[in-house]
Design goal:
Blueprint (H helix, E strand, L loop, with lengths): L1 H9 L5 E6 L4 H16 L3 E6 L2 H11 L10 E5 L7 E6 L5 H16 L5 E6 L1 H5 L5 H12 L7 E8 H6 L2 H10 L2 E8 L2 E8 L9 E5 L5
Parallel strand pairs: 1-6, 1-7, 2-3, 2-5, 3-4, 5-6
Antiparallel strand pairs: 7-8, 8-9
């Protein structure tokens, strides 16, 4: 974990990290490692769980035989019905993006006001983006993500399925890539993943490969 810890240490508060992954267990491995890192630093983790993406991730870890104490993370849920982890807020999904994003913004502002510093991990956000049908709606959502950039109380990590990301309108892909201060591509294997850093404010990290392995059942 030394190299991964170096990467996470290098991500400053106010940065946005975009991790793209193919269909795999990359989200499971990555969340586990980030939570362990945060615990070692005494920093709380908030999972931004969209449409029960987090419960699915936890179920996969259990199937892999990997232990994960979900009570160590705070969870804010949008949509879905399965509560996993320390759920501290729920956001009602509304088909009108203006209504939903207003409630999302107000809820998250209240949550963040309770923490001096935190690491947020957003999962299932591509499920929200794929429901948006016009450029105006996409820009509203992207603007909310952009607000995390420069927020000195947060390190923000977005785990996004590569296939769904590539299916988004080109303007959404371009804007998300522009906003992200760090972009990581991934290549999974049986018990972990190789992370390739393709964009970073630290030039020494660009082009680096990091291996994340959590073991589990072989």
């Amino acid at each position: 974990m030394d190299i991964l810890e170096g990467l996470l240490d290098g991500v400053k508060y106010g940065e946005v990290v975009l991790i793209k992954y193919p269909p795999s267990y990359v989200p499971e491995f990555t969340i586990l490692q980030i939570v362990e890192y945060a615990k070692s630093k005494g920093v709380p983790v908030i999972i931004d769980d969209n449409f029960d993406a987090f419960p699915i991730i936890v179920s996969h870890l259990e199937a892999l035989g990997v232990s994960f104490d979900t009570n160590t993370v705070y969870v804010v849920k949008t949509g879905g019905s399965i509560n996993v982890g320390n759920v501290i807020a729920k956001i009602r999904y509304h088909p009108d993006p203006r209504v939903y994003l207003k409630e999302y913004r107000e809820t998250m502002d209240k949550v963040f006001s309770k923490f001096k510093e935190c690491i947020t991990i957003s999962v299932g956000v591509e499920s929200v983006l794929s429901r948006l049908t016009t450029p105006q709606e996409l820009y509203l959502a992207i603007f909310e993500i952009q607000k995390a950039l420069g927020n000195k109380n947060r390190k923000s990590v977005y785990l996004i399925n590569e296939r769904i990301f590539n299916a988004l309108p080109s303007i959404a892909r371009v804007e998300l890539s522009r906003i992200a201060s760090t972009i990581v591509n991934t290549k999974p294997y049986t018990t972990g993943a190789h992370l390739y850093i393709v964009k970073s404010p630290n030039p020494e990290l660009v082009g680096k490969e990091i291996t994340v392995d959590v073991g589990g059942k072989q």
